[in-house]
Specification:
The complex is a heterodimer of chains A (215) and B (377). With 215 residues, chain A is of the alpha/beta class. Chain A has four helices and seven strands. Chain A has a five-stranded mixed beta sheet with strand order 1-2-5-4-3. In chain A, strands 6-7 form a two-stranded parallel sheet. The longest helix of chain A has 14 residues. With 377 residues, chain B is of the alpha+beta class. Chain B is built from 16 helices and eight strands. In chain B, a hairpin with an 8-residue loop joins strand 7 and strand 8. The longest helix of chain B has 29 residues. The chains are: A alpha/beta (215), B alpha+beta (377). The interface between A and B is large, with 47 and 46 residues.
């Protein structure tokens, strides 16, 4: 089936023959065009084999050997480690990361909404100012909380333990995550809205089911 | 003991002494944000920052546009530091798509980023000057900023919103004779910067208003997770350009500026000293830059990222700036989170303003190198 349009802008569904008034190239023409220009059209981003750096591996091994099956090391790359855990264990893991490994502050707390698996991921990016060796490292600590179809922020099951007593700097980041995704942080002293207006009456706006008008 | 008061006269209650002030969002001393300040006489008892008046939902918008369409709107939070806010985005997308950047483009990016850092710092310095009642310090940086704006206009074609850095390199090559022109203006600017010292940083009025006010200790700076000049003014030697060098920063010759005082004066002095380092970087980058070659790697049309995530950070004018980009085999990113220095430094505002004179509020507030629009995103 051709995607080209005729003069009136009506899609021509019956024939695939090209007319002089065609406004867009057919798929074959486009492919030929890109081949002539030497533009690569292979679909996927090239996956490069990433070497596992030894220093980063030693850090992730410490966490893995301490917590065993409670944590999953998702990846170990140059200067980046990602560890995910259940939300019940995150406080213990965070205490270990601060006290034993030397990470001392959080750079950001992000929510990622996964409506298909009915979960919201909360991702902490942790860094260190005090340990010179860890200065280039960012440790990503992730956990998943349940996602309600109809959110009721603060009252539904989308909640987890706040890490504010471990990393003081998450205070405003967690407030932002609460208003934008509806994840309630238990133990956070100040679970108010930060950026959204006080009279915001819609669902948390960074969830995937909140659509921007006109899009 | 109860005293019989004359009729019509009441004793003051403690609650009546505390007055709540809404500084902003229309107040010129607050920028586009509100500070809910409680004062006892002239002293601030508590401060509750209320940002969000310029929230644009950049992160949400990024989920609807492909990797290239995202470039112009992502620089909007800080248009006067547009190269630095696009820098980590470009680094992140390049890693996601597996793009190699040409060597010359890396140097051109560094030059653009450092020029933009100076533009931002001069803008901030102008505002800092005028809020301390120093109109000369408004006029001078605002005038000198034009030199760098002209340079970036020659590079990118736009005065403020450059959108010059793109995934894969930079949008276009440098114009002819750019190097000579840039070096000439950098030389002039360094001479000019030394004059700022006499007129502003040694001015007794500035010193009396900033020295010893809003002290942030080293421990608190680390605990609160501050970044950028706020962190370095409290004695922590941390600069992403040194600690996790991106592009060609590891080849370039510069120092990290650190001060130990932690007061408003140090926080206003660190960005000033960093402008000298920016000049050094620009000079060194022009010297080491390959004289010819490509500046942009051609991308596939509508490129798709793999099923992975990237966190990249750079040092912007206001501190570390990180992009967390999650991709799911689509031309659009699944989620973009921008971790900005302004938002991270916001947390220390209540700590610094507590117990401070209300009159010193602008001196402390603007020393945080805070840009409300960037904090809201």
């Amino acid at each position: 089936m051709s995607s080209e349009n005729d003069k009136d802008g009506q899609p021509s569904e019956t024939t695939a023959e090209s007319s002089e008034n065609a406004k867009s190239l057919s798929k074959e023409d486009a492919k030929k065009f890109y081949e002539e220009k030497g533009i690569d059209l292979s679909p996927d981003a090239p996956v490069k084999p990433r070497p596992i750096p030894p220093f980063e591996k030693s850090i992730s091994d410490k966490v893995a050997s301490k917590f065993g099956s409670k944590v999953t090391v998702d990846y170990v790359r140059e200067s980046r480690i990602r560890i995910s855990t259940k939300k019940e264990d995150i406080l213990d893991v965070a205490h270990f990361i601060r006290d034993e490994l030397g990470y001392d502050h959080a750079e950001s707390v992000s929510g990622v909404d996964y409506p298909d698996s009915k979960e919201i991921e909360v991702v902490y990016h942790l860094g260190s100012y005090t340990d010179e060796k860890l200065a280039s490292q960012v440790l990503t600590l992730a956990t998943r909380v349940p996602r309600e179809e109809i959110p009721n922020p603060g009252k539904d099951s989308s909640r987890m333990t706040s890490l504010r007593e471990v990393f003081y700097s998450v205070e405003f980041h967690e407030r932002e995550c609460f208003e934008m995704f509806g994840v309630y942080f238990e133990g956070h002293p100040d679970n108010r809205r930060l950026l959204l207006p006080e009279d915001w009456a819609d669902i948390p706006p960074f969830r995937k089911d909140f659509k921007i008008k006109g899009r | 003991m109860t005293t019989q008061l004359p009729p019509g006269i009441q004793l003051e209650k403690i609650d009546d002494r505390i007055m709540t002030l809404n500084v902003g969002p229309q107040h010129p001393g607050s920028g586009h944000m509100r500070l809910i300040i409680k004062v006892d006489g002239d002293y601030i008892v508590s401060c509750d920052p209320d940002p969000g008046y310029v929230h644009r939902g950049e992160e949400k918008m990024a989920e609807y546009r492909n990797y290239i369409q995202n470039v112009p709107h992502l620089e909007r939070p800080v248009i006067h530091d547009s190269s630095n806010i696009l820098y980590p985005y470009c680094l992140a997308v390049e890693e996601l798509l597996g793009i190699e950047v040409p060597e010359r483009a890396k140097y051109v990016r560094v030059i653009a980023a450092e020029l933009n850092r100076c533009i931002y710092t001069l803008y901030w310095l102008a505002i800092y000057g005028i809020f301390l009642g120093h109109s000369t310090m408004f006029m001078w940086p605002a005038g000198d900023r034009e030199l760098f704006i002209d340079l970036l206009e020659a590079m990118s074609g736009a005065r403020v919103t450059h959108a010059y850095l793109v995934p894969g390199g930079v949008r276009n090559d440098l114009p002819a004779n750019f190097e000579e022109r840039c070096l000439r203006q950098v030389d002039y600017f360094e001479k000019r910067l030394k004059e700022y010292q006499a007129v502003f940083y040694k001015n007794p009025i500035l010193i009396s208003r900033t020295e010893g006010t809003g002290i942030l200790s080293r421990t608190d700076a680390i605990r609160l997770g501050t970044t950028g000049s706020v962190l370095r003014a409290s004695g922590v030697n941390f600069d992403i350009r040194k600690k996790e060098p991106y592009d060609v920063y590891e080849n370039l010759d510069f120092e990290t500026v650190v001060m130990k005082e932690g007061d408003s004066y140090a926080r206003s002095y660190v960005p000033y000293l960093e402008m000298f380092e920016s000049c050094r970087i620009i000079r060194d980058a022009i010297r080491k830059m390959p004289k010819s070659g490509s500046v942009r790697t051609k991308l596939k049309p509508n490129p798709k990222g793999g099923n992975e995530e990237v966190y990249k950070r750079v040092e912007s004018g206001r501190g570390a700036l990180g992009y967390y980009v999650v991709s799911n085999n689509r031309p659009e990113p699944y989620r973009v989170k921008i971790s900005v220095g302004s938002f991270r430094n916001l947390i220390c505002m209540p700590y610094l303003l507590k117990g401070e004179l209300l009159g010193n509020m602008p001196a402390v507030y603007w020393s945080l190198n805070y840009w409300p629009v960037e904090a809201d995103r």
